[in-house]
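Methods — Computational structure assignment.
A single polypeptide chain was analysed. Its primary sequence is given first, followed by the predicted tertiary structure written as structure tokens.
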Amino acid sequence: MKLLWTKSAKESYGLLKTDAPELAERVKSLLKDTLSHPDTGSGAPTKLEREFSGLWQRTYAPGQVIIYSVLEDVVTIVSIGAKETALQNVHLECYSKEDEQSVMGQMAANRGKDGEPKVGIF
């Protein structure tokens, strides 16, 4: 699988590496696990619902999450940080136009009937 980052997620990870290297190592470990099996494994992978449908989250520390999408063989890290902040960052007004187009394209391609994720993608 291939790993992609939104600009804001990459910046958050960079800050984490500087401010809390031990948490950055935990994130790195979870990302490796995510690339091997995006919907199972460490960090309690959880499929998000409603306006976040098509996204997943994993917990790397109490109250701290990685928000990501999976499309075929690409995992895109959308947001990293405190759960409330990470979810707020998912809202498109927090993204550059490039990030918005990338995430919206991935989410649209990942929807099947009734807006639910396609079976087999995850």
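Note: The chain has a mean pLDDT of 83.
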